[in-house]
Design brief:
Blueprint (H helix, E strand, L loop, with lengths): L1 E5 L8 E5 L9 E11 L1 H8 L6 H4 L12 E9 L11 E5 L10 E5 L4 E3 L6 H4 L2 H15 L7 E5 L4 H12 L3 E6 L4 H7 L3 E4 L12 E6 L6 H4 L3 E8 L5 H9 L4 E2 L8 H16 L7 E6 L3 H8 L7 E5 L2
Parallel strand pairs: 8-9, 8-11, 9-10, 11-12, 12-13, 14-15
Antiparallel strand pairs: 1-2, 3-4, 3-6, 3-15, 4-5, 5-7
Helix pairs in contact: 4-5, 4-9
């Protein structure tokens, strides 16, 4: 089978497509033939080894885990002898972290991991990125912010994978949503349900007339220092993008500044959030926006596009 790997940090050109044996499922695993997989900004950052302090965990001089991709959707091809939840032919989707990668033709995954039957309401391409965008944003909005009906949230980077998910999830609970994005994406975020849109090239946060209950910086471009004037007294500033600045601000103001690595949560907690998302997708209350799709052999081009910063929604790898 084919699989995408990188053995050193660098530009998209360091990505290789290699031939490896199709894995055999353990007794508690299923073998999934991957139909679509995610490729994210986080993937490009790990490939580059940035921020550099992250190499303390990823590998100081070269990556410890050379595989790429975490979100997937596909069809069960074989099952281990202990499997009770899934059967051959089932369409499934989910996420496998710290593994041999989902940007490949096949993967083995335990049935008690973050995996579920794919709803008939969505395609494999729409299912594959759900754990990267929706699951991460849902963790922030529900478990960290506990966002409620009637609250006012400001979402920065609302046209990306995390941001577009956050707009939909915030509206789902009845929050008022103000978003920050580029002018060319205004119609896109309004269609997602945003109440107000601010052009990031023109907005001055200190001059905004409102105080927000939640500021969600989905792209890690804002500063809490520059935003605190527009946060309500019991509001929070949160971001999924780690930086030295955020770590420092959390040390001094842990009540208002929040960061967490969603992938580091306990599996049972991820599955709880994931299963709730599956329910929403079954009811067609949420939808995945796809910007571009690429074949596995063109994954380096997908990484190049992500690095342009022009992505709207999600980028997906499709196995033909």
């Amino acid at each position: 089978m084919k699989a995408a790997i990188y053995t050193r940090y660098g530009s998209p050109e360091v990505i290789q497509i290699i031939d490896v044996e199709i894995p055999s499922p353990k007794p508690n695993e299923i073998l999934v033939k991957i139909k679509a997989s995610s490729v994210t900004r986080a993937d490009t950052m790990m490939r580059q080894g940035i921020p550099k302090f992250g190499r303390l965990f990823l590998g100081l001089f070269k990556p410890k885990n050379t595989a790429l991709g975490t979100g997937f959707s596909g069809v069960v091809e074989s099952v281990g002898e202990q499997i009770t939840t899934f059967k051959i032919g089932d369409e499934v989707f989910g996420e496998k972290l710290f593994s041999n990668g989902c940007n490949a033709d096949y993967l083995c995954i335990s049935e008690d991991m973050v995996i579920e039957l794919k709803p008939d309401t969505i395609s494999h391409s729409q299912a594959a990125p759900i754990c990267d965008g929706f699951l991460t944003s849902y963790n922030f909005l529900k478990d960290i912010a506990n966002i409620q009906q009637g609250q006012h949230i400001l979402i920065n980077g609302a046209s990306g994978s995390l941001g577009s998910a956050a707009v939909q999830l915030s509206k789902l609970v009845g929050a008022k949503v103000t978003v920050v994005c580029s002018a060319k994406n205004i119609d896109f975020v309004l269609a997602l349900g945003a109440d107000d849109v601010l052009d990031y090239t023109k907005v001055n946060l200190n001059e905004l007339p409102y105080k927000y209950d939640v500021i969600y910086d989905a792209v890690g471009k804002l500063s809490y220092k520059d935003s605190k004037k527009i946060i309500s007294s019991d509001g929070i500033f949160m971001t999924p993008v780690l930086s030295i600045q955020i770590l420092w601000q959390m040390l001094w103001n842990s009540k208002q500044v929040k960061f967490t690595a969603t992938g580091m949560k306990k599996t049972k907690d991820l599955k709880r959030l994931f299963n709730e998302l599956v329910h929403f997708f079954k009811q067609s209350k949420l939808h995945t926006s796809i910007d571009r799709t690429y074949g596995l052999s063109d994954i380096s081009k997908a990484h190049q596009y992500l690095e342009t910063g022009r992505k709207v929604g999600n980028v997906v790898i499709v196995n033909l």
